[in-house]
Design goal:
about 25% strand; single chain; 5 helices; 6-stranded mixed β-sheet; globular
Length: about 120
């Protein structure tokens, strides 16, 4: 799967995704570390990448402004990162990439919520 990671995603999460064989790039690597969230969503969609973030503001951009496609929102703290990674791996195994491109998925320790996007 192809992912664009927001600047707030832990480096350990980026390594987990890369070590699992996924194509991962970060906002920083693209020179977009100061870009608006809406711009990151547009870039992710243009590049065929699923946005991964810890920023809850993406929900409003996706559902209210109909921007971008495919967001994985990580509700994580330093104390829950291991359990969150286990749940994230379950999500990536359960849903094919084409479904994730059309969804907003909230992942937290021990559970996740999958919501299909409009259109």
């Amino acid at each position: 799967m192809r992912f664009l990671l927001d600047q707030d995603v832990y480096a350990i999460t980026a390594r987990l995704l890369q070590q699992s064989g996924h194509d991962v790039t970060t906002a920083s690597e693209l020179g977009l570390s100061r870009a608006a969230d809406s711009e990151l969503l547009v870039v992710a969609a243009q590049q065929g990448r699923i946005m991964v973030t810890r920023d809850r503001d993406y929900g409003g951009l996706v559902f209210l402004q109909n921007l971008g496609a495919g967001v994985i929102y990580l509700r994580v703290s330093p104390t829950t990162v291991g359990a969150l990674h286990a749940e994230l791996q379950k999500v990536l195994a359960a849903y094919p990439e084409d479904q994730l491109h059309k969804a907003f998925v909230v992942v937290e320790a021990g559970r996740h919520r999958f919501r299909r996007l409009r259109g």
